[in-house]
Design goal:
Length: 328
């Protein structure tokens, strides 16, 4: 395949030979190089997932389209940053062959967890036992973590000492993702007086709510911008697969919905999950209706397709007391 997606940016080579191969031979056709207005872009032509990776300028374009208020103070940060490395890591196939460095998906994950175990986990556990004056809760997933404190003084001191700890290993906290947030039964009132909004982390909005008995609880809902961006991506991909067979599109869309439910399927987020599943089915119906001007897809048939291919909205991560409860 010549000049396909993910291939190198070499000049176009003519695939047709001269008509007259005798003596003297007809003049052969000349190849065509790159356009002068399109400089070569940085790209990784092949990955362990056997798919082409987007170029550097494409990644900058995606960052600008995803957030209209982003400021490109350092283009290198948007071309090669931790978020893209994390996405590339999770895009690798677990059973893929080792790369040029001889490392596999499992080895990369083990190296990351082992490194942070000694840099952060053990240090945070020792700090909690020897330095904290109140309760401290630490939750870490890969290189993302949340630390909860009973007293604000402990939180400020922990953050200052953590920066010094990471600096010894030539690491630093992300300036835009590292924040001190007040959260609890009285946090909503205090943050309202201070003009602060609801905290957003890990793709969900954390809300100070109350149960039916009036006790405090944490309500987590999918960030609206994340939900709309995901539905826009699903719509674009469905348009690209407009004429693909229904079973092929159904299997792909099922994997997308299943992945969304497994990530955002937390308690108190049922309405956002139902919205995503309904909108995904509606977009699929609109795409099928665009296939032909005569054939119409009724909602009765569409409901059968949705029940056949798409999983129903559900909570995948219940509360720990329910998830870990054992009856003997």
């Amino acid at each position: 395949m010549m000049n396909g997606q993910g291939q190198s940016d070499r000049p176009v080579v003519p695939a047709k030979s001269p008509n007259n191969a005798g003596q003297p031979a007809a003049e052969g056709m000349e190849g065509r190089g790159l356009a002068k207005g399109n400089p070569s872009q940085q790209s990784a032509p092949r990955t362990l997932s056997r798919e082409g990776a987007s170029s550097a300028l494409a990644r900058v374009r995606e960052a600008a389209e995803g957030d209209k208020q982003v400021r490109f103070t350092a283009l290198l940060h948007h071309v090669y940053n931790d978020e893209h490395l994390r996405v590339a890591y999770h895009a690798l196939k677990r059973g893929a062959a080792p790369g040029i460095d001889g490392e596999t998906w499992e080895h990369y994950g083990q190296a990351l967890n082992v490194y942070l175990h000694y840099v952060f986990d053990l240090w945070a556990r020792r700090w909690r036992k020897t330095q904290a004056h109140g309760d401290v809760i630490v939750v870490r997933y890969a290189d993302d973590f949340i630390v909860g404190f009973q007293h604000r003084a402990d939180a400020e001191r922990f953050l200052a000492e953590l920066r010094e700890r990471l600096a010894t290993f030539r690491l630093e906290l992300h300036p835009e993702k590292t924040r001190l947030l007040e959260f609890g039964p009285y946090a909503a009132e205090h943050r309202g007086r201070a003009g602060e909004g609801k905290p957003e982390t890990f793709g969900v909005t954390h809300i100070c709510g109350k149960k039916r008995n009036g006790r405090f609880t944490v309500v987590r809902q999918t960030i609206r911008k994340r939900l709309q961006a995901k539905l826009s991506a699903v719509k674009a991909e469905l348009r690209r697969r407009l004429h693909a067979p229904i079973p092929v599109v159904g299997r792909w869309l099922r994997s997308v919905v299943e992945g969304h439910l497994r990530y955002y399927g937390v308690p108190m987020n049922g309405s956002a999950l139902s919205t995503f599943c309904f909108q995904a089915g509606r977009l699929w119906c609109r795409t099928l209706r665009r296939r032909s001007q005569t054939a119409r897809i009724t909602w009765e048939r569409m409901r059968r397709l949705i029940r056949r291919w798409l999983p129903p909205p559900r909570i995948c991560h219940p509360y720990p007391l329910r998830r870990l409860g054992v009856v003997t």
